[in-house]
Design a protein that fits this description.
The longest helix has 17 residues. Helix 2 runs antiparallel to helix 4. The chain has four helices and nine strands, in the order ββββββββαααβα. With 150 residues, the chain is α+β, with helices and mostly antiparallel strands. 27% of the residues lie in helices and 32% in strands.
């Protein structure tokens, strides 16, 4: 059994349109320029039953979660992750990590995997994954954003 998540993004000067598809409970979040982190997909970690997933023998089970969303402006990053990430940190910690990771990925040669491993400090279960699409942040922008989050 596995879970799958996909995000289609369309941007214009004034807004970003997202189509989010999810089988299972792998959360998708959007980090906005304001520093706000929007969680877009449901998570069964709060006692809700897992109602959709992919089974290797029979294919997809249940109905995928689909969400269409228009956001004002352009997000800094869109992240899809597994429960191993969200069960290991708060939303505030995740938001701060994403700002720092986007800056570090744009500024020097590091991998998201190494940053996530350091961030989670090996406290995540072996079932964690993280995928991040982002636009570069200058050092000045990253510092301003991190100061706003304090």
């Amino acid at each position: 059994m596995t879970t799958l998540t996909g995000v289609c993004v369309t941007t214009t000067r004034s807004e970003t349109q997202l189509e989010v598809y999810s089988l299972g409970d792998s959360p998708v979040a959007v980090l906005m320029t304001s520093g706000e982190l929007l969680i877009l997909t449901p998570d069964n970690g709060l006692g809700m039953p897992l109602t959709s997933y992919v089974d290797s023998l029979i294919g997809s089970v249940g109905t995928p979660f689909v969400k269409f969303l228009a956001l004002p402006g352009r997000p800094i990053g869109i992240v899809a992750m597994s429960d191993g990430v969200t069960n290991s940190c708060t939303s505030a910690e995740l938001r701060q990590f994403l700002v720092q990771a986007i800056h570090d990925l744009g500024a020097r040669r590091v991998t998201l995997r190494s940053l996530a491993k350091y961030f989670l400090d090996d406290s995540a279960s072996d079932n964690y994954s993280l995928a991040l699409a982002y636009r570069k942040l200058s050092t000045k922008s990253a510092i301003r954003l991190l100061e706003r989050l304090q």
